[in-house]
Amino acid sequence: MTLKITPLSGTIGAEISGIDLRNLSNSEFDAVHRAFLDHAVLCFRDQDLTPDDQIAFARRWGEIHDHPYLNGLPDHPEIIEIVKEAGERNRFGAYWHTDQIFTPTPAMATMLYAKEVPPVGGDTMFASLTSAYDALSDGMKAMASRLRTFNLYDKQSPRSKRMAEKIPNRETAAEPATHPLVRIHPETKKPALYVNGMPTTTHFVGMTQDESQPLIRHFLKHATRPEFTCRIRWSPGTLGIWDNRCLLHMALDDYPDYRRVMHRITIKGDATIGIHDLEAAE
Ligand SMILES: [Fe+2]
Predict the structure, then answer these.
(1) Which domain holds residue 214?
(2) Which of 1, 156, 240, 277 could tie 273 with a disulfide, CB 3.0–4.6 Å?
(3) For residue 88, what pLDDT band results from cuts at 50, 70 and 90?
(4) Any catalytic annotation for residue 264?
(5) Structural domains in the chain (count)
(6) CA-CA distance, 50 to 262, in Å (whole number)?
(7) What is the value of pTM for the model shown?
(8) The domain spanning residue 115 has which CATH number?
């Protein structure tokens, strides 16, 4: 088999074929890693992985992150099982976001392995924050590079309250995290417009919520322009992995009558660096 890379859109995303994730040589992993940096989100079809196989593949990317609010599978705590039952109205991840922006060291990558999916619907969409930054005017780039976002895990939201009920012993109050709005990718060194929708990104440091929110909404609308996006259509056995340092993603909630089960692993990330931190270090 030879590894083949097929782009998913003109901007981001690629499907990798000709590869078995259970038996990946070092040179194949290097090629996959290069494709990850080039395309930001990858998918692999028809993979037959046990939880141990998925964990072994995840460990090649870095250290596995323990989610502070979600419990893992009983025998494989590294894996969070995301289940949406037919008819359920729990919209997990059904809004544009980047994982864990509410922590000082957000997840580098997130991996989903599709176990059970609807016959149609339930795709995940991705948007390139690198393309979003590149498309800003010079004036807006200069202004954005001076801003820091204030991000909070909203423990008052209905979703957080539900989680707190399920996991009574877990600490649900999070410290806020601030990040540069223009984040430099630690590997590609490309700037990205690192922003989440409300309610996670509440405001810019040194500005009020009233002042910040129109601008946050503007950046989010700009970053999710259709030409900056791609989507993964899942089938059982599809594994997707994406780079949270330069992407937003959203799970589409368009399959009310079906069950969907995904196995998620997140890979630990670094503290964020801004464009000015990079200039200061040079
Ligand atoms: Fe997510």
Answers:
(1) 4-281
(2) 277
(3) confident
(4) yes
(5) 1
(6) 13
(7) 0.92
(8) 3.60.130.10
